[in-house]
């Protein structure tokens, strides 16, 4: 596997730097998601909910190691590669801290879905090995079905909850898109990969616009699956 860092697109230092940045952002994002799952478990109204979230947190932890290992092949210090993204990702979670259990579920379902969609879309323009690694970290470990089931229960019991959560979903959409753009703009190499000058598959500004259109469409579909308007 190490040889792959010395051939193909990795001979381009800009591309290599962009992949280090991208994996660094994803790696810290997975760590932050792990922390948030444990925080959400503390708000769970039922013991079964708490256990379900802690189980998800355990599976979430397993996603961090492959990213760390790949970064160790590409750079001397994998954790140093994650550090530039701590402030932006932590700020996102601070600005979108849920006030209760229901907001936490919407954030897990809608907010994480937006960020995952972005990374999955970008991975389509990268080398095969990096794409496979990124997609493997974005697998759903049951979070979606769990969140949908519990949210539908809650809204059925209290229809007024739907209006509040619809507003919350719109806020999450805006903050998540701002976060992805801020993370990309904060690093020159990643900015070049999004501008089309360092990509493996030729992403350009038009393609980037199409990506955000698809992400927005999927967000609307997620909200609709809960019976909520975007």
Task: Describe this entry's structure for a reader.
The chain has 230 residues and is an all-alpha fold. It has one domain: Ferritin, core subunit, four-helix bundle (Ferritin, Up-down Bundle). It contains ten helices and no strands. α1 (13-43) crosses α9 (188-195) and α5 (101-123) runs antiparallel to α10. It is globular and about 60 Å long. The mean pLDDT is 84.
Keywords, please?
mainly alpha, 10 helices, 230 residues, globular, 0% strand, Ferritin
Q: What's the structural blueprint in terms of helices and strands?
A:
Elements: H1 13-43, H2 47-74, H3 78-82, H4 86-95, H5 101-123, H6 128-137, H7 143-157, H8 160-185, H9 188-195, H10 205-225
Helix pairs in contact: 1-2, 1-4, 1-5, 1-9, 2-6, 4-8, 5-7, 5-8, 5-10, 8-10
Low-pLDDT regions: none
| Major sheet summary line | none
What is the CATH-assigned architecture? Up-down Bundle
CATH class: Mainly Alpha
> What order do the helices and strands follow?
HHHHHHHHHH
Q: Overall mean pLDDT score?
A: 84
- SS class: mainly alpha
N- and C-termini, Cα separation: 44 Å
The percentage helix is over 70%
CATH topology: Ferritin
CATH homology-level superfamily: Ferritin, core subunit, four-helix bundle
**Count of all domains:** 1
Question: What spatial form do the alpha-carbon principal axes imply?
Answer: globular
Write down the Rg. Answer: 18 Å
Number of DSSP helical runs = 10
What percent of residues are in strands?
Answer: under 5%
| Annotation, overall tally of beta strands | 0
